[in-house]
Structure formats: C-alpha cells, structure tokens
C-alpha cells in the first residue's frame, strides 16, 4: 500500500495543500482545531512525510543537535528522553554527541553538527568550559542555540536548568533540622553557575540558621574524569575525617553523591549513625543503596523537554522575547542516609 500524499489529505479534507503542510509542521498560522483535524487524518491513514523534499523546500533539515557530557548516567538519559518526546511530537529528529567533559571535543561536536546542517543546537557544557566565543559567533549569525542543565553567565542565551540554589538550601536545611551544625560541603571545581549556586545555597542555609560558615568544611573536587574524581574525593574525605570530622556531608553532584557513600562505607563510617549524607542525584539506585541515599532530585525530563521546545520555537522564528534563564524546582527526597 503506497503512502498518502499532502495532496491526498488536502482533497479529503477540502483544504489547500499549503494549509495541510503548515498544520503538519505545527505552524502558528494554523488554528488548533484545523491542526487536530489534519493530524488525526494523517495518523489514521499512516501519512509519512517526505523529509528530503521538505528539507529542500524549507531550507531546513528538521533536525537538532544535542551536545551533552556523557550518556552513561540516569540524569542525562532522563533529559534525553524529554528531548526525544517533544522532538517526536514536533516532527524533528535529534543527533546526540558527547563531549566527554573535554572542551576541545565539545567544540568539535558543535562544529560537526553545524556542518551537518542541523537547524539548531542545544548544549550542556563541560564542567571546565570557560570559552563560549565560538558559540557566540554562531549565535550572532542567527543560528539558534539553547543552553540546558549546565549553564554559564559567560554567554547570553535562552537557558533551562534546575533551581540549584533552592535545592542546595533545602538539602542543608534538612541536615540542620535534624540537629547537625557541623556540615561539610563537597562540590565540583567547575566554573559553571551550577557549582557556584549550590555552594551559595549551602552558605545561605547556614547563615539563616545562625551557623558559622567554615572554609575548612568545604572541598572542591576535580570531576573532569572518573580517575580525577576518585582521587579528588578520596583526598577531600581524608582531610575532612582527619581534621574537622563533620556530623554530616552535603554533596553537590550525582557522581560525588554515590561515590561519597561508597568511600565512606569503605572507611568504616556508618551512615547515618556516624555521619549523615545527602546529595544531588537522579540515580534510580538511590533507593536501593545501603543505606538508601537522601537526594535532591532534579526535574531532568522536564529540563530536556522544555529546552528542546524552546529551541524548536526559535528555529520556527517565533518571537521568544529577550534571553531568559528558566529555573525548574527540585524535590527533596528524604531516605535513610540523612535520618
């Protein structure tokens, strides 16, 4: 059975071919009722768009590039699921590339995606990215770019992320409410706003509860590679345990949280009897760990979905107003490790 065409749909619904085409591409020029009629008919009759013909006509590939650090953790996988959902709904396909936390590879990913003809790029920068000049040049040429999850003040663009300050504040407050006053904070040494906002949230919670901030309770780790993360975290814990020995630890990234629990266990520290622990993590294993890990859960699927929707709107030429940063609320999940 051959596929039906735009002209077949047009004739069946007594609409012009251009109206049908615009309805199928979710054009703002077509009313929602007409879009629904066209989409329902197309779906019922197994309409398959000719992507090559459409690309030639529109001067677009109906594809977007996604640059992320790595796909080997749950948080990123959940964001990609959100991106895939809205792209499927909107008739776009995605090309995913990994920077592997290397700024040079990140730039190579962007260059390759741009050369391949994607209509726009959404990027979650590496922990160490400080030079955004090449992205700014693309943006100045009119190319749509959205930053998501990891964002930076070094570039003006539409940005989607979690409310990192709020999440860090709530995690620290939870430890304080449980009677802890000597609370350590372990963070990434990244220059992205994610790290600084989580650090500031920690400090603000201490201040609001009249607890003195002590620099020796704060450790910044090199999280660029698994090896540097392990080495930095080992050193940080050894320094904390040999000198200040905190009552509780608040960790600021997914990997730091799960690795910290494992290393403390290896050192004979009983959680939460000897020390409470809470951290940012979207790991499905958080509840299955021993003890189960208290976490700040980020709306990963929503971050991906919202960022991709915004990029698609930019590609379509919709007026999105001045650049803005959207912060989505986190959720405090209390489990055994901090009780």
Helix content: 40-55%
Q: Report Rg.
A: 24 Å
Average the pLDDT over all residues and give the rounded result: 91
What would CATH call the architecture of the largest domain? 3-Layer(aba) Sandwich
Give the H and E element order.
HHHHEHEHEHEEHEHEHEHEEHEE
Residue windows where pLDDT falls under 50 for at least 5 positions: none
The CATH homologous superfamily name of the largest domain equals Response regulator
The major beta sheet can be summarized as: 6 strands, parallel
Order of the strands making up the biggest sheet: 2-1-3-4-5-11
What is the fold-level CATH name, i.e. the topology of the largest domain? Rossmann fold
Q: What separation lies between the terminal Cα atoms?
A: 62 Å
Report on this model:
With 339 residues, this protein is of the alpha/beta class. It folds into three domains: 6-49, no CATH class; 60-161 and 300-326, Rossmann fold (3-Layer(aba) Sandwich), CATH 3.40.50; 164-299 and 332-338, Rossmann fold. The chain is 45% helix and 16% strand. It has helices at 6-13, 17-24, 32-44, 51-58, 74-90, 103-115, 133-140, 164-177, 193-208, 226-244, 254-266, 300-315, and strands at 63-68, 93-98, 120-123, 145-148, 158-162, 183-188, 218-221, 248-251, 276-280, 294-297, 325-328, 331-333. The strands form two sheets. The chain has a six-stranded parallel sheet, sandwiched between helices. It has a six-stranded mixed sheet with strand order 7-6-8-9-10-12, sandwiched between helices. Helix 2 (17-24) crosses helix 3 (32-44) and helix 8 (164-177) packs parallel to helix 9.
